[in-house]
């Protein structure tokens, strides 16, 4: 089924999987080139792995798109912020808490390998901040215990703005108004507070708003009369230029223009790809192996960071050779993916909505190139 009632797109799930895998490889690259001096020579040959920050930006657009679709498809239905918060908490928190507990153990082992002692009081503060989903607001805690979790906290804060501000503005003044509000609120800390909280990239709220706008356009009848494929190409060219020019070498506060350009390209692509004809990129993203990675991408995202740090610390501690380190990191990828899939089965899948679980199952039993439409939307690195 295509059109206004659709809230599940296989290529969106696939893009989430690609982004999660990319962030995983980015952190391996970052750890290897920083901690393994012998591997620094390969930095130039692996330049394409340096864009981890922008993969997070892609996650945020995906989240806005997927959470916006059900609202866009039912404009006359009352939006209940309490019910929305309950669904998000039920979906995200079981795996989040379980991964946090595992991360604490891994962090303690990593600290022991480094010869460091972590005071239990410091660890307790970090755990409580993570459970409260505010650790990203404190620079010392932003990447403490489990680095990638900063973006989970940010997204949960974005959910609050979405439910209490963006949806009411959208319903009253239209989807472009909610985007304008999201961009202004997201950039306010940078400009009004002189860069405070730049480390947590608050302007990603604007990218979430872009995803919401893309969802509203996707659900609008007759929208595909416009030449969206050409519009998507026009938006993608400046995004590609931004990536090639900037990479990961920018100060925190300098990322917002690049993020907005990349986010706009992804949002426009989602509108274009929701049409009846699938292009080559969409076909690849909707292929079963990539969609499978998307199905358990939240687990990949939650688990990989501390494991990569532990591996890097162990290799440095025992002065691994270049070859040994390369082999270890290569083996780490399938090991973490296997562990993440098992974690997904235990800590994620039981908390999926029945409609989304059915959609994921049907995606792998349907005929090739068949895509499924259901009434439950995925989110960030976490499906609904």
Structure in words:
This protein has 384 residues and is mainly α. The chain has one domain (10-363). The chain has 14 helices and no strands. Helix 3 (81-114) packs parallel to helix 12, helix 3 (81-114) packs antiparallel against helix 13 (322-348) and helix 5 (149-173) crosses helix 6. The longest helix has 34 residues, at 81-114. The protein is globular, with a radius of gyration of 20 Å. The two termini are 20 Å apart. 46% of the residues are buried.
Keyphrases for this structure?
globular, mainly alpha, 384 residues, disordered C terminus
Short description:
The protein has 14 helices and no strands. With 384 residues, it is mainly alpha-helical. The two termini are 20 Å apart.
Secondary-structure map:
Blueprint: H1 10-35, H2 52-73, H3 81-114, H4 120-131, H5 149-173, H6 175-192, H7 204-218, H8 228-246, H9 256-273, H10 280-285, H11 288-295, H12 297-317, H13 322-348, H14 354-363
Helix pairs in contact: 1-2, 1-11, 1-12, 2-7, 2-9, 3-5, 3-12, 3-13, 5-6, 6-7, 7-9, 8-9, 12-13
């Amino acid at each position: 089924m295509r059109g206004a009632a659709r809230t599940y797109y296989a290529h969106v799930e696939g893009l989430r999987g690609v982004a999660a895998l990319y962030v995983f490889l980015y952190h391996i690259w970052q750890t290897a080139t920083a901690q393994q001096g012998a591997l620094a020579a390969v930095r130039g040959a692996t330049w394409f792995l340096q864009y981890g920050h922008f993969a997070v930006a892609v996650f945020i657009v995906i989240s806005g798109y997927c959470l916006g679709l059900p609202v866009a498809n039912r404009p006359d239905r009352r939006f209940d912020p309490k019910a929305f918060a309950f669904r998000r908490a039920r979906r995200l928190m079981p795996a989040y808490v379980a991964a946090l507990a595992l991360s604490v153990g891994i962090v303690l082992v990593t600290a022991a390998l480094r010869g460091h002692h972590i005071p239990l009081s410091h660890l307790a503060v970090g755990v409580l901040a993570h459970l409260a989903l505010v650790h990203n607001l404190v620079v010392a805690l932003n990447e403490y215990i489990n680095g990638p979790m900063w973006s989970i906290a940010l997204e949960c804060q974005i959910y609050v703005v979405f439910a209490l501000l963006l949806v009411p503005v959208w319903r009253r003044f239209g989807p472009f108004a909610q985007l304008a509000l999201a961009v202004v609120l997201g950039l306010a800390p940078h400009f009004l507070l002189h860069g405070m909280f730049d480390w947590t990239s608050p302007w990603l709220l604007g990218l979430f708003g872009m995803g919401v706008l893309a969802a509203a356009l996707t659900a609008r009848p007759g929208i595909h009369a416009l030449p969206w494929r050409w519009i998507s190409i026009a938006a993608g060219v400046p995004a590609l230029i931004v990536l090639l020019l900037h990479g990961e070498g920018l100060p925190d506060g300098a990322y917002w223009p690049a993020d907005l350009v990349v986010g706009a390209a992804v949002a426009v692509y989602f509108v274009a790809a929701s049409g009846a004809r699938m292009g080559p990129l969409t076909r690849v993203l909707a292929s079963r192996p990539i969609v499978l990675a998307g199905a358990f991408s939240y687990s990949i995202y939650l688990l990989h960071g501390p494991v990569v740090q532990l591996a890097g610390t162990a290799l440095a501690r025992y002065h691994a050779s270049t070859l040994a380190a390369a082999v270890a990191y290569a083996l780490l990828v399938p090991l973490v993916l296997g562990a993440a899939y098992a974690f997904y089965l235990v800590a994620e899948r039981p908390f999926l909505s029945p409609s989304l679980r059915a959609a994921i199952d049907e995606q792998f039993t349907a005929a090739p190139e068949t895509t499924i439409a259901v009434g439950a939307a995925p989110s960030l690195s976490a499906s609904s």
